[in-house]
Amino acid sequence: MASEEKPLVVVTCTAPVNIAVIKYWGKRDEDLVLPINSSLSVTLHQDQLKTTTTAAISKDFTEDRIWLNGREEDVGQPRLQACLREIRRLARKRRSTGDEDPPPLSLSYKVHIASVNNFPTAAGLASSAAGYACLAYALARVYGVDSDLSEVARRGSGSACRSLYGGFVEWQMGERADGKDSVARQVAPESHWPELRVLILVVSADRKLMGSTAGMRTSVETSPLLRFRAEAVVPGRMAEMTHCVRERDFQGFGRLTMKDSNQFHATCLDTFPPISYLSDISRRIVRLVHCFNAHHGQTKVAYTFDAGPNAVVFTLDDTVPEFVAAVRHCFPPESNGDKFLKGLPVRPASLSDELRAALDVDPTPGGVKYIIATQVGPGPQTLDDPHAHLLGPDGLPKPAA
Ligand code: DP6
After folding, report:
1. d(Cα 169, Cα 51) in Å, to the nearest integer?
2. Confidence of residue 95 (pLDDT cuts 50, 70, 90)
3. Ranges for the Diphosphomevalonate decarboxylase-like N-terminal domain (predicted)?
4. The pTM of the whole model exceeds 0.70
């Protein structure tokens, strides 16, 4: 039976979080979500951080509906509407250009969507990228679209288009006014650099004060430094970063990652009124990383910060135990019963007296709430197991187990 004749078509997909090492900050077109510069990111492993989304279409549904982490949300929000419009347009286009039958009924079917994160949405970790990538991917499966999904995901959140692929991903800014060439592409697959590790240092679980969309709008309007960065700095950095990734050059990769994060936060300070996403603890982490690297005489670890105070630290597997010990030393965990280290197992290590002396920071108990240890991972997946569906046969969220 063709899928369009089924009473209920349901698919469940998962999608990853990504972290940019060359940052996206600023749009040249707010409606189409077109950036003022290209960006490059690392896709994080879904074993630690992922969004799961079920999309179901049925002729019996009377309206589009969406549930996020179990709560029904307003389906009318503009970004969500833009994604839905875009996927239905692609579905229509596909059917009308192929030598297939006339547009099937399923195109007019309403959709129910349910989405959950396996990490706290409010933890200040980028959930919108994984969320919109997962939405785009699941909608494409349910409506039978197999074209490039960059535009669908991008309309939800710019950085979401980079979560459509695993490994190392660039979002090419493109030149066209209609955005057709503003697409995400894989630079290298997740198997490319197996030693690379990612440590997320969760500093604060609070929601950010100034969201990315509003923040970057003010930056575009007021920061001459941002314009300079987009025009004169990022093009060279994209080429350099691509080279470092291809060559698995950690020194180059780490240095450029830190510089680009610092420049992004400099453009925030150059914004008027200024925006500041880093906290005192973030700055202490920056100091810790530079002390650690100076002690070793090379770039062993590298930080990057998005629109919030949490640090994402890149390093190689053999450095993880010592760096985690250094973080514990500088930010002694407060015994609140929670596990300080989540994700991939990390071998315990002790600090040498020399390194302890080199870490020129006053310990701040509880400054880092916990660490998530993860690695580079694959792109979105479709789950075949019907038990994974978040929506039941009636198209409503299954009661949480
Ligand atoms: C600092 O993709 O969240 O994380 O397109 O307005 O939804 P919108 O912004 P968003 O911005 C991400 C900004 C960043 C840098 C990055 O991920 O490249």
Report:
1. 18
2. low
3. 15-184
4. yes
